Structures are given as C-alpha cells and as structure tokens.
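Hello,

Following up on my earlier ticket. Below are the two sequence lines again, exactly as submitted.
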Amino acid sequence: MRAERKAIPDFPLAAIALLLSVYGILMVYSAGQTDAPTVVARLYRSQIIWLGVSLVGAFAISRASVRFLEWAAWPAYLGTVAILASLFVLGSGAGDAASSKSWLTIGGHRIGQPSELAKITVVLMLARVLAGVREPPKLLVELWRPALVVGVPIVLILAAGDLGSSIVFVGIFFAMLFWAGVPWLTLVLLASPIVSLIGASSTWVWGAWFFLLILLVWRYRPYLIEGIGVVLANVFMGIIAPIIWDHKLKAYQRQRLLVFLDPSSDPRASGYHVIQSQVAIGSGGWLGKGFTMGSQKRLAFLPAQHTDFIFSVVGEELGFIGVTLALSLFLVLFLRSVRIATRANDSFSSLVAFGLAASWFVHVGENVGMTLNLMPITGIPLPFFSYGGSFMLASWLAVGILLRISSEGRGRADTLAI
Amino acid sequence: MSFHPNEVARRARVATGGLVVAFVVLLGAFFRTQVLQNSQYALQSETNRLREVPLPAPRGIIYDRNGKVIAENVPGYSVSVLAPTADSLRAMLRRLGETIPLSPGQIELSVRRYGRAPNRPTAILADASFDIVSVLEEHRVEFPGLIIQSAPKRHYPDAAAVAAFVGYTGEITEAELSSRGYRGYKAGQQVGKGGLEKEYEDKLRGKEGTRFVEVDARGRVVREAGAREDLLPEGAPPLYTNIDMDLQRFTVSLFGDTLQGGAIAIDPETGAVLAMHSAPTFDPNRFIGGIPADYWRELNTDPRKPLYNKVIQGRYPPGSTWKLATATWALENGIVTLDDVMPTPCTGGYQFGNRYFHDWDPRGHGSISLAKAIEVSCDVYFYQLGIKIGITRLVAGGVALGFRDRTGIDLPNESAPLFPYSDDYYNKRFGPRGWNSSVVLNLAIGQGENSQTVASMARFYTALATDGQAARPSIVRRTEPQRTRIFQLTDAQMAGLRRALTGVVSVGGTAAASKVEGLVIAGKTGSAQNTEDATKTHSWFVGFAPADHPKIVVAVLLELGGHGGHAARLASAIMARYLKATPVSLPPTAG
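Thanks for your patience. The regenerated structure is below:
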C-alpha cells in the first residue's frame, strides 16, 4: 500500500488557505469602505500584518514533528487551561461582546483571545487521549477522560461569557469521537442530554425525543446503571432547561434564540441584524453590487460587517458567484483536510487533522448559516475572513500542523481516495 | 481505537458525504435568497437606503377676468427632518431649539407628525424665513437629517381685498387625512382651506414630485441627489375667474376700514361674479405656513366677525328689497297689475284687527299704484297686497322664487337662506293657535320669518334684470351659464317693474341721492329691522344697471347701516365704476 514512504506537504491545502486569506483581507478592506468612515477603514492593514505573522507561525509549527506535538500536547493543554483561568482576572471584553471577558489583557494591552488558540491545544490533547484508547468504549463512562479534556476549557470559557466558542468545542469533541470510531449509538446517547436541553422548549418535542431515547436504550442494551443514568440525565436536562433559560442565559442570548425562530418578532432590535444581513445577501443577486459597492454595507445597515457578518458583505457585493467561490474554497479545504486525516501515519495525527478540520467546519457552518438565519447568532467568526489576529493565527497554525501531518503521511500513490 | 485503513476510509466517506451535503444545503439556501428572492430583497435594500422627500407642486395660479393675478406662488423654504426613531427626532429638535426658535409645543407636534409617516421627512417649519434658513445652513453639519428645500408658497398680491372668496392654504389636518375626500393625500401636504382654494382643490393642487435622498442606518442623509432620478412636481394649470380686480379693489375701498357688511356684483346674463367683498376682512397671506396664534385669536375675538363671510354666510332680514318678490309673484299670478290701487290709501299706517301696522313714512303715501308703491316703498300698499295673496300662497311663492335655496355659488360653506317651507311652519313654530294671518303683513314687506343672504338677494335680482331666469353666481369662468326660470312675466310687466325700480334711484325715490349722471340705475333699498339693534336697521340695496339693458347686478348690505340709501350709494358707485360712469355724489366713507 505504501508506494512512496516519504510524502511531500499538501501544498494545495496551503494554496487554498492563502487564497481564502487574500479573499478575506479584500473583504475586510471592503467592509471598511463605508459612506461615513469609521475605524474599520484602516483595519485591513493590521489584518495584512497578522497574515504575515500567521504565515511565519504556520511555517514554524510545520517544522515541528508530529511526535513533538504529541509530546507537547500535555504542557500546552495545561498552559491553555491556566491562561483561560487567568481570564477571570485579566480578561476584558471588546466590541459587540464587551460584556464577556474573552480577551487576555495585560497592563491594559489586549494580547489576544486565548480561546482561539485553546481550540488547537484541545484538539491535540483530545487526539492524544483518544489515540491511547485501544478498544471502542463499551461504557459511556469510559469516555470520561476525553470528556474531561473538553469539559474543563468549556466551563472556563462559558464562565468568561463566550457561549459561541464553547459550542465549537462541543462540535470538535463529537467530531473526534466519531473519527476515533465511537459507535453511532454511543454518540447519540452521549449527545442525548444536549438534545433534551434544547428540545425542552417544547413539551411535545421533548416527549417525542424521550420516547425515541427509551427505544434506543432498549435496543442498545447498555449496562443497566448506564441506561438509567442516560435517561435520568435527559430528565434532568428537560427540567433544568427552563431554569437555565430564565436565569442563566443573558437577556441578549435569549433574544438571539427567539429571533432565530422568528426574526420579524423584533425587527428593530435583535432581529435587525439577521434581517439586514438577509437583505444585504438577497439584494446581491447573481453577481452582486460590485466590490466595495454594497449599499447595505456602505450605509452601515450591516452589523459587525468586518467580523461576524463579513460573509454578508461577500453576498451583497460579489453575489451568488462570490458566495459559491468562497464556499467551494472552504469545501476543498475541508476535503483536503479529511484526506490528510485519512492518509495520516498514525491515529494521533489522523485525529489531530480531523479535529482541526472539524473546528473550521463548525465555524464556517455556524457563521455562514447565521447570515441567512439558518443558525442562531452566536458571534463565531469566519476562518480566514473575519477581522481578528488571534483567529487568523490559530487558523494558520492549524494549516501548519496539517501540512506537517501530510508530509509525514502516505504519499500520492495511495489508493485510498477520499 | 479502530484505525484500520478500511474503517478510516469508511468514516472518511461518511465525513465527505456530510461535507458535501452541508455544502449543497448552504449553497441552496444562498441560491434561494440571492437568485430566487432577489427582487424582493433588492426592493427592501432600496427602501432601506432611500427616503422620499416630497417636492410640493406649485398650485395653479388664479387670474381675474383681465389676466390680473389673484393668487400666485412665491419662493419659500420648508425645513424638515429625517429621523430613524421618534426619540432621536425629539432629541434632535431639542438641539435644534438652541439654534432656532422652536417651542416645546412645536416639537411635540412634529413628533406626532413623525408618528404618522416615519419614513417621510417630518415637517418642522412649513414656511421658514430666510434668516432661519441661513442660520440652519451654517449649522447643517451638526444636524445630518435636516432637509431644507425651497417650496412654492402661496401669495395673494391683493391680500385682504380678495379674502372673501379666495380662501387660503394650510397643512392637511389629521381629520382631513382620514376623510374620503382627501384620499391620496399625504401628511404634511398643503391643501386649500377655504374659498376658491378649497372649492377647486382638485384643479389647483398639481402633482407632487419626489426627490430621493440616500440615508444610512442612522438616518443621516449621505447623498442629496442622484440616488435615483427625481420625479419632478407638475404644477397645476391656472384657474381663470370672472372677478374684475379693478372693480374688486374699488368695492373694497368703498367699505374702507369702518363699514361692516357685504357686497356682490354679478353679471345677470351669465352669473359671473365680478366682485365680492365681506367687511371687515383679513389677510390670507398671514395664514400661509401656519396662522400666528395671536392673529388667529384677534380674528376670532373681533365682534365684527372678520372670518364670517357676510355675502354667502350672513343671513339678514331682506326688508323692502323683498317687496319685489311679493310684487313679482302677485303680477305673475294675476292678483294685481302695476296700475292697481289698494282699497285703503296710505296714511302712515294700517289697522289690521286690533293691531296698527306702521308705514316707514308716517306722512303716508296716499292712494298709489303698485309701480309707485315700489318706487316709494310703501308698506301699507304691500300690507294689503299680502292680505290679498294670503299667507299660504305668499310662502309658497317665496319658495317658488328660490328663497329657501342656496345660490349654488362655487364657494364652500354657503348658508341656505331661512324661509318657511309652507304656512305649516307657523303651526310648528307658534302652535296652531299661536299665530294669526297678521304674519302675512310682515312677510309681504320682507320682515318676519325671512332671512336672506346677500348672494341670494342678488340672485333674485338677476331674474328681474333679465327675463325671469335667475343666474347661478359663479366666480370661476364657466363655459355655459346656468340659469333657472323662477318666474314668467310679460314684457310689459317686466318693463313696468324696471321703470318702478328706476324711480327708486331718481328724484323722489328712496335712493335718489345715489343717482349717477348718464346712467339709469334700477334697484330697491331696504332698511331691515333686526334683532341685533332695535334703533338701527340693516341697510340694503339690490339693483342693476343700466336699467334698459342690465350688465351688472349689485347687492350691498351694511350691517346696522341705517336707511337703505347708504347701501344704495355704495351700490351705485360700484355700478358706475364697472360701467365707467361718474356718480353724482360720492359715497360716504363711513356710515
């Protein structure tokens, strides 16, 4: 099977990432071109600098062997947790999320958003833990180690007030369990309390789900205690959901979820963002209004147009063609990543590659879906597009790691096709 | 766990499948939004960024019969504001109030206006002075939603002299907006509020244009022009009237500042209103762009009621001018001839039952014919004529002659005269036993239950001046005159009546002092007793000239003006002016 022992790095992946970055910087530039100029007008310059920094970072990390990354996973993870914990003291909010504490701030200078880099260290750590397991878990309890690896940063990030990022971690967790070969039913049972939590908004939905769950438990026949545990967890979530809704979610978070269900329920305030974004994208048509010419954007009808809603600018100015181009580039990026994961030399590399791709995928799916109200607004940025240094660096570090994995993996002649 | 290549390949296929499905779903959603629903969202995007600023159309110019301007448009400025919310509007107006005078009441009014049409510019000042506009232009940068534009403003060059018929314009009210007659109007528009401006609103309004300005999310105007091509306003065509401005000004000057009453001059053949004035008057120019509160209060508290039109709204007992109605009906129905003498000669009064009815002249008129009785306005003759006709027929005659009908003049708010619909009226009013046939004596001389407008009396005399057909008075030029036959007399009877009326304005007549050299005037004075003042009568004169071929009918009423001769002097001066003759004696400037 191994026709070429030594493969070369997956340069098409790097090329696509670079194309996406250039595309993204052009859009950040365009987002700054408003009729009433704001500070956003100059941000594309710092984004270019960040791209330079990110490229250097990607090159540097691609020089590190996978074995080194595996060794470094533990200290990097512990460091990440420490930094996330320090946010309670050193964190500050910014921009639209001014109430959260997701920015690491030292001496009044905002260093960056540690949660972006945490996504990489968590992927590394999860991969290390999952690669060490030889047999698929018979018991849900056997998944306590990976669950803990993800759970600690999720709790810390949630506590800092960043709901969006924690959702990304959940996505990474399930994607990597899937890639590790955890059976479907186990994943469903594991995810069932979350479904209960969401479904509890409607008694009927929750009731139907609960009935389905009982059937699944019956068929899967886990150990008695575990089956009872899952069912109880679902009941608990069903009960706690209204309490969380009323007391734990902030008013704006509740509004966002309500608006997701019906944007016109609050067209002037919370629904405003979604409606304006849809209007911007919808008015773009096939070819768009032309680069920098989007009137919705120019006249500041678009919210957070250089960060969370940058894809609305793509839709308005470059139309369906521009959207198709961007989404196609992302699709190829994901497919190349899955290919790298498939051809990786060992289970750790494979899991890392898939985890990083999953992280991107969750970002793209949520961010792009949000602009069309297919997803609730959570404030998750779009990789390579949204303005922001930490995320750009994190995305390119992931590219660097993927390149390294591909260069250590099996070569081109491999018959395993994706 | 399981990382056998086959297992990994299987999972890779699942992952790839999932990715492709997600890609297709997303792309499908974008296709739906951007391609299928494009027109809908493109429209939303347009309405998002464009605000319609109305461009008021110039109203039609109103001309007199000789092409002189009665109402025109002059350049003015309007100030309005585009605001995203009512709160921001209020905040902005408060700041604006530091720069220009703006009362809290005006601010609240503007906020209410905003509530009706948030996407249209909210009018702040409908008619801003040049000073205010200059100040605002200086501070323009501080008020990004401010729209200052030139707007045609109504102006009446003759001001108070045309107030009786021209009316004025003002902003459409909430009540008007919701009424059926103003469908298609928008808040903030100017509409005719009275007189011709209201009556001919449809013809005068023109077609409002639209300018499109581009605003950003905060409602700031970012581009004034070129966002979309302007829809230019279309001015209305001019309105040509029958008014003779020369005669109108002359009529107004006759009243001066002291006389109180109304006058109307009509062409008897066509009903064309040549002049019309109600004194005291007001300045309609001050009504444009909002009536100043103190002026409004002044007009409303003036006991002489300047806003009350004394030609078409005021109702006065017609007095002796109405004797012609009694005479005409009696002649038409063969009850008398012009030469008939009544049984009892006039000795200064008439005993009827247990009541003595006085003649206006205590010396009496002796035994006279109907023609002479008209000339000297003998009450005793008409008492007896009334008795001869009887109350039932006299009331029916008045109704037939149109004394219950509006003249149909093309002005809003005309009052109908007050006249019994039949003798049943007296039963209703006083009870069947509460009155007796003596009411006919009063009715026959134009007193009693009879109140006519000046226009209504003028209309009756257009029939006397012609062939028995009354002309509908019309201020705006009409292609076909509208005339209604109200009585039918022989040529000889008509000639006899006119001769008698000519005697009124001759030596020995009641209006002998109003004689005009070289002009034969026919007419009738009236000194109507009224409820307002027992010692002073309303002074009436209704007549026409030249007597043989009448070109003008004039009705004049002076409130509490005393003897009808006073009104006659004004009327004859008006006729003389129109017919280019010189009155023998100049009219009094006060009476």
